Amino acid sequence: MTAQGVAALRADREEVLALAGSLSPEEWVAPSDCEGWRVQDVVAHLGNTFRAVVDPGALAPGVPGDLEATQSVQVEAHRAWSPDQVLADYEQVSESGLATLETFQGPPPLDSMIPIEDAGMYPLHLVANALAFDHFCHLRNDILQPHGPIARPAPPADALRVGATLEWLLAGLPQMSAGLADVVTKPLGLELTGPGGANWTIAPSPDGAVHVQAGTTAETVARSAATDFILWGTARQPWREMDVELVGDRDYAATVLDAIRLF
Length: 263
What we know:
- The chain has 263 residues and is an alpha+beta fold.
- It has helices at 3-20, 25-28, 39-54, 67-76, 83-104, 127-143, 159-176, 180-183, 226-233, 250-259, and strands spanning 113-115, 121-123, 188-193, 199-204, 210-214, 221-225, 245-247.
- It folds into 2 domains: 3-160, Four Helix Bundle (Hemerythrin (Met), subunit A) (Up-down Bundle), CATH 1.20.120.450; 177-259, Nonspecific Lipid-transfer Protein, Chain A (2-Layer Sandwich), CATH 3.30.1050.10.
- Helices cover 48% and strands 12% of the residues.
């Protein structure tokens, strides 16, 4: 259920507020694991994801058809802000954004499809999951150690937050990964373990695209911890350097995994 996305996002919003309130001036300007972004730029970006929901006209003009380039331009527009401005803005716009995202959940959930640059087309109710994914990754992997610069305990990677993140990534997998349809020629099972994990099948569809469905009986399988999949599926870490088990046609599975790039 995508209502899980709002609950997960609300939980990680509290983590961002708590962490940001504890940062020293030196920590605010430390380089994050997002190339070219300081910690405060990452927090500004998270604020902008909420602004895209409640006041998109207030965002700097982006790069049509390129979500990541657009986000970089919009972060740059706030680069001269002080940490206090970034934090105050995040607190205010995230509160408004959560209220709006709640309305997208219905009942019934809003299924109107919207374009999100080169990420594809998604129902409105899934936007909460997109923001939950952004918070999950940026907070744990780009701000906090071991990949980011900030030494603080990591927030929980529980079934709520991992599950909401995976719902977004699996919905986006057929649309975001350019070239995936060229290499998916038979079903591949994706078994993600740990809190929030489940099994899926990545398979070719009759229209020449790629289809992802829950459950799997595929003979060829890629097996990974769900939290590891979030890292290698978004190309933050190479899957070959992580604990990914391939069963069956290993060469085919490796070719598919090489083509996955989520954002």
